[in-house]
Amino acid sequence: MLAAGGSAIGISLFGCGAPEDRRRPLSLLTWDAYADPHLLALWRDATGGDIRYEIHVSDPTSVNRLRAGETGVWDFINLNNPWARKQLWPQGLIRDLPRDRFEPLYREMFDKFAPPYHWAMSEDGHHLLGVVQRFETFDFVVNTDVFSPRIARDEGWDLFNNPDLANRYGILAYEDWNVMDICMGAGIHPFSAKTEEDFAAFERTARLWVGNAKMITTDFAQLNLAIINGEIDAYFTGGTYSITSARLEGIDNLYAVSPSRGPANGKGSINWIELNSAVANPEPHPETLDFLEWITEPEPAYVIANGNGNLQPVSQMAQPEVLARFSQEQLVALQWDEFEERIANAVEYDVVPGYERLYDIYAAAVRIRG
Amino acid sequence: MKIGRRAGPLAAAPAMLLLATGFLVPVLIVFAFSLLPPRTFGWTGELTLSNYSTAFTDGYWRNLAWSCMLAALTTVLCLLLAWPAAKALHRLAGHRATAVTLAIALPIFISESVRLFGMALFLMPGGGILAGTLDAVFGISVGTILNTRIAALLGLVYIHFPFVLFPTLLGFSLLPNDQVEAARDLGASGWQVFREIELPLAAPGALTGALFCFVLSLGAYAEMSILGGQAVTVITRAIEQRFNYAQDWPLGAGLTMLVIALTAIVVFPFLRRVDIDRLIHR
Questions:
Q1: Domain of A328: which CATH number?
Q2: CA of A359 to nearest chain B CA: how many angstroms apart?
Q3: Do B162 and B83 contact (CB within 8 A), yes or no?
Q4: Number of structural domains found in chain A
Q5: Can you tell me the ipTM of this complex?
Q6: Which of B60, B233, B244 shows the shortest C-beta gap to A370?
Q7: Do both A149 and A224 map to the same domain?
Q8: Which of A56, A91, A197, B229 has the most Cβ atoms closer than 10 angstroms to its Cβ?
Q9: pLDDT tens digits along B221-238
Q10: Does B247 contact A231 at a Cβ distance shorter than 8 Å?
């Protein structure tokens, strides 16, 4: 990346070189998988082009960066599903994609994504806003030496309401997810409008869950190690995203649990779907659309599924050619045998109504913890 | 002659410009943000002091108090450790002192997070380096302080100790050995040597180190996160929450300004009292 940056600066200073050399790097504002060095190398081999990237701090932070004028900086943005439809497109922060070119890609994915796929379309249904790729549930992780997966699934979020688990679980501080999980634990649909009673129930649960947590960290490796060392028996938020690298090393008592029931129209799990979109850069990079199409090819899709060592399902795994690239060990690490069940038990991620107030309650619970 | 008189300001101009653009302007921007209505990003909103009132009414004092207490404790512990260590190194002066100094200084060049993760691995129960070794070699089973406030404090001392040690060592370098020997020859006790000779001469160095330590510890966060398991929430963590997931830059800016003000309250009186020129032999 340094080389790419240096090259771009050099060219702008001296104004010479072949037209290809003057091309600025394709700029990605993204979650980690698309910053995988193997993916960047594959793209370079395929096109000769360089990529620069920045990894999100959180979805809303990056949305605000585009709002603050960074559309001129980025070409590609990879965010969870609701943002494109509900924020980026209405505010003119992303471009729509040519449907004739990109809708056929959706026919190569799981049936869930059959076009027109809700989250990939504008509210009026006319504009295609991106390409879905990584998707999975993200709920909690247990030690199967302590909890059977079936019991944990059936118990669902009530597991963390149980006083017996006090000081025996951790919190992965992906805080927007923590807010959604606490909603679930408080018996509130996270993606529905909240009443005053809902806020009160959320506050009770937030104080209980945050106060009873043994540890809170932004590093899931620390939480996995704490389970391995017997410090804790479970943590939220978590899922295959946070454990596949450990499971690939044979630590298969780390287990991602998606509750089989809950308050979200009977569902207790949350399914995130990443949507890759073209930023409305006033000087669009000529290869942005090519990149968006290229990442759905089998080899890049496989690299993205393995992005930065966190194995995650991609929509292209519906294709036998892509699925065949995954070893049995990788599929076991992904808990692939129950993947369909996980997705079926999950409500799709959405913007949380009342998020600001809920987050302030959550943050206050964290502040009074110590 | 005219140029001669202007030489100082001219020479200082680049540094002043750098400080103005790299330090003063960002602080002014943060201050301006702190006067905007909560959760706004535009500059068109009416100016308000509500972020400052929220900082005092919404429980942030607790986090500020934790930050101050941990910073003060860290400073005292580092001073208690650094004083005898600096004295010993000053006496050793030579190859052995260089080796010890290097052993203390080299870790500074390693990322703070890496060192803290190393400490976490050391303290981890079960398969951790300390617990695992004691169990494997001596059959002793021990618990852990990991994910407690004590662990956070240990991390703060571990990270900030060199920042106190080296200025203290610099202070001790002002101490002529023959003066100590003369005092001893004249029958001074160890306490008298400490009080009458060592303390007045080496204290400015130690206090400078203490100042570094306090200010850096006040802004620390990784120790509480990596070793403390967020058993304590410090003000920097609360600020980070406002800027990040809360997307409330104005309140985050207000809290930041309070920390800057607190730092200034500690630093400026100190700078007035301590003769830095003397410390650096100027």
A1: 3.40.190.10
A2: 7
A3: no
A4: 2
A5: 0.86
A6: B233
A7: yes
A8: B229
A9: 999 999 999 999 999 999
A10: no
